[in-house]
């Protein structure tokens, strides 16, 4: 049978073609993330605004096609939000003096993206292509805490995630199993199926033979099992009412976020800081990159684009054939331009997330040594929202944890504080969970993204209305200016958005210049 | 306030003393895993049978106290079940010729323990003390598959774990929420609390405003979201009846094992193979270790113990003051001794798990490149039971996955096969899930623990009866012979069992020799 015959036959077998083709090694010819656009282009100059991941990826891919690029980046560093704070890192918030981090060498935290979902194939593709090693980001940790400050019977107690997960699972399955015993709930279920479901509920909830939830080793031990005559001791579950009244079934705590597609394990991070991805890209585009170049005006002209920018030497004007603008919308909103009114309105209208993080350096990894928490997240109902434990240097000496990572109103209030007061807040609230803060704390560095110059927001946060009515205006070029970045995707807040958007815009721009019909992605990407 | 006053006051505040003491740094003086027994002992010779983790740890800790130890290890390598298979590894199964692994350099799989729970503090303590770096073992992966061979409507389909998890969660919460709408199920719940529970169920299950479970992004996309006009496509959930009829709610699949205390994330492994722990210990006890020394007789004498063993030079007899026997019970059962009848009966009676693994080397990490599976476990209802994907070298070139890891009857049948037939089975069943096996497979190595000379079993598997009636006999020394190993703990199958047992027996032996009262552990260990 020829390859052609085979493919013809396979096409008829819905769902069967893929394994069959794999078996013949046919799918290897076109790796999922090849981006082999046809046609090389010489003598075209593309000006790219912003040296974050989207900007640098655009330049990197365009250079492969023969284009000459200039990336204008306002800061003295590339990478944008893909940024790890380590000794010597500086940040400028709009209402504050410049801040410099003084962490110990080798320690860092990711101020921006800190997690790569395993299905963000393009992010992993670039890690591989750019030789950036990755390691697991341990997003799920049953040993971390829920901490309800001043609420209910479990107020101010460190309750392990595993206790809450297993208690709630137990109570809910018990309720449902009881009900099902009294009659088939679901008309679609046969009696036999209903019995299967009850069996499942018993296993799922860890119920006893009477279908009651009682003490369970799943929620941990009050005394650990060991050698000899030490079987371990299990304590009683929390009462359901106590869990409810302390708010541990509220969204503050009960972490349905863990179920989100993007936050499901396996998750990754770049070894040595997420900005290793940006640094690797930077090496590839170093010749195109102008640091300290702040864009002041964007003009579509009759034959191209003119970009005005200022740097340490003064004002400059630069002409290009096309432009890719990756500036965050709140920043772009303050830059002179001659965009159409639809585009201008969209730029002004689309909201960005208020969000901030603080990194706290401790002289001892007490969360590991005393609390046995290795990575993962403690959830609180207070201003901290979350404490992130580092997913690197396990069993090491010192460490930086993220003392708060908050959003919206909480992030707004935290953002208003001075650096010193943010530190004070993080320590005061954090020591309720970890009294070790008092003796082990060394130094902090905080970033409020909506306050940070050249960002003015965490990421685009679309309302249904904005997605429907404003977003489409930015998907087409305005004259010769294309818009790219996570904000022009359905992957907001993720590095994958920057990569996908860059490729999408590079494909569109290249198609226009070479007068080809190019569809990006070539095939519908599989989820 | 003096330290003494402070402690006096703190003691009265139940639960409040710990944070207060932490705040004063008082708890740091005694780290959780200090094992500082008092009194040094010179001129005492302890013979340790078995150079696995329990035996080597015993020698390591005894040497700190001044004892002279001899470890007799039958194999030409130490470490016992803490063993990683790499190029040149050999194994002897009772009914087969010696087997040698021919994997590529740098690739390995852990034939024995492959996971360290984050709460196995003593295992992590030894990793730290012995400078063995650890990395996350990614036990939970929502992107792996359930694969029901020949069963029901989802038969022979690769169903992502996330699909099943989220579909079942959706259907179960929908059923319970519906029922609760019709009246309060639980007399203990107030109306307000019941409403809270319904709100929780909606969030937990991803139900819509009518409390119905419909399509959900949590279960993944049929077309991934991307840049521009690509919001992604979500497919319909599996029907509950289909999930039931394919057995995906049966224990084969629906992985309540993930909820087990010992299998909850965070989990770890030693970087470079779990046997790095054994190798690090081996360095510490190298002077005491006799490899290739097979014990043939254990005799309690009037003043000590006499151990007979054979090695390449012939038969030997060795006298010691005391003995610690860490040999697995099925092995010990075949060694001459003058133990009491209670001890002999226990040794013969206690069951060991039948279990086996096969490592398959592939020339390409297709599970990552094609299937986007990074670590974790695919569950099947066939002889494979599980496929384990490696938690190291992510994005690397080649890799070894564990093609089956099975137990009991399945392991018994697999164990009976020749090495070639085990490979054939792993490939035939595995290619149903991963057709890439056909083109990418290179070589295999399999270990059947119950067939492996000097082990004859995976780990002690206690019935309630054996735990109650046989186990206690082995917790006391028989004359001057102490018994140690995972089988003498409530941590069966875990390396922590070996460590805990070794310490427990070292403490007991040292107490007897120095006539001290020593309780191990010093305080009840916290769970």
From TrEMBL, chains A, B:
Alphabetic keyword roster: Auxin biosynthesis
Molecular functions (GO terms): L-amino-acid oxidase activity; tryptophan 2-monooxygenase activity
Entry's family note: Belongs to the tryptophan 2-monooxygenase family.
Superkingdom of origin: Bacteria
EC main group: oxidoreductase
A GO BP entry: amino acid catabolic process
Keyword NAD: no
Domain Amine oxidase: 53-509
EC nos: 1.13.12.3
Known pathway: Plant hormone metabolism; auxin biosynthesis
Gene3D superfamilies: 1.20.1440.240, 3.90.660.10, FAD/NAD(P)-binding domain
Protein name: Tryptophan 2-monooxygenase
Biological classification of the source: Bacteria, Pseudomonadati, Bacteroidota, Sphingobacteriia, Sphingobacteriales
UniProt catalytic activity: L-tryptophan + O2 = indole-3-acetamide + CO2 + H2O
């Amino acid at each position: 049978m020829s390859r052609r015959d085979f493919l013809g036959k396979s096409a008829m077998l819905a769902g069967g073609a893929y394994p069959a083709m794999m078996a013949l090694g046919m799918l290897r010819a076109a790796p999922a993330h090849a981006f082999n656009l046809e046609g090389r282009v010489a003598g075209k100059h593309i000006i790219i605004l912003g040296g974050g991941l989207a900007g640098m990826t655009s330049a990197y891919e365009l250079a492969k096609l023969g284009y000459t690029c200039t990336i204008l980046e306002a800061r003295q560093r590339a990478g944008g939000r893909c940024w790890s704070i380590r000794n010597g890192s500086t940040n400028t918030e709009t209402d504050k003096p410049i801040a410099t981090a003084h962490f110990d060498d080798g320690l860092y935290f990711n101020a921006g993206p800190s997690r790569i979902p395993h299905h963000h194939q393009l992010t992993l593709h670039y890690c591989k292509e750019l030789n950036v090693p990755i390691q697991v980001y341990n997003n799920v940790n049953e040993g971390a805490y829920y901490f309800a400050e001043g609420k209910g019977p479990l107020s101010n107690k460190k309750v392990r995630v595993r206790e809450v997960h297993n208690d709630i699972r137990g109570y809910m399955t018990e309720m449902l199993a009881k009900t099902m015993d009294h009659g088939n709930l679901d008309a679609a279920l046969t009696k036999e199926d209903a019995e299967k479901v009850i069996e499942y509920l018993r296993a799922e909830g860890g119920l006893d033979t009477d279908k009651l939830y009682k003490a369970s080793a799943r929620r941990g031990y009050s005394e650990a099992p060991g050698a000899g005559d030490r079987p371990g001791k299990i304590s009683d579950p929390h009462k359901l009412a106590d869990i409810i009244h302390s708010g541990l079934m509220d969204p503050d705590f009960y972490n349905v976020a863990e179920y989100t597609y993007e936050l499901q394990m396996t998750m990754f991070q770049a070894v040595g800081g997420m900005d290793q991805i940006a640094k690797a890209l930077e090496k590839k585009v170093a010749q195109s990159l102008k640091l300290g170049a702040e864009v002041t005006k964007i003009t579509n002209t009759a034959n191209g684009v003119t970009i005005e920018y200022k740097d340490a030497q003064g004002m400059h004007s630069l002409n290009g054939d096309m432009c890719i603008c990756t500036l965050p919308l709140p920043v772009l909103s303050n830059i002179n331009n001659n965009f159409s009114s639809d585009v201008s309105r969209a730029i002004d209208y689309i909201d960005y997330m208020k969000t901030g993080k603080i990194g706290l350096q401790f002289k001892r990894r007490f969360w590991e040594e005393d609390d046995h928490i290795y990575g993962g997240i403690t959830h609180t109902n207070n201003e901290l929202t979350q404490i992130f434990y580092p997913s690197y240097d396990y069993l090491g000496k010192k460490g930086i944890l993220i003392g708060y990572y908050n959003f919206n109103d909480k992030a707004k209030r935290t953002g208003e504080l001075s650096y010193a007061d943010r530190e004070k807040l993080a320590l005061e609230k954090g020591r309720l969970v970890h009294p070790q803060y008092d003796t082990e704390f060394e130094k902090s560095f905080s970033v409020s993204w909506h306050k940070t110059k050249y960002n003015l927001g965490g990421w685009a946060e679309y309302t249904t209305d904005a997605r429907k009515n404003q977003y489409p205006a930015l998907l087409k070029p305005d004259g010769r200016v294309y818009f790219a970045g996570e904000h022009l995707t359905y992957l907001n807040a993720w590095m994958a958005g920057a990569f996908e958007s860059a490729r999408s815009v590079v494909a569109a721009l290249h198609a226009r210049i070479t007068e080809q019909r190019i569809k990006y992605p070539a095939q519908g990407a599989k989820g």
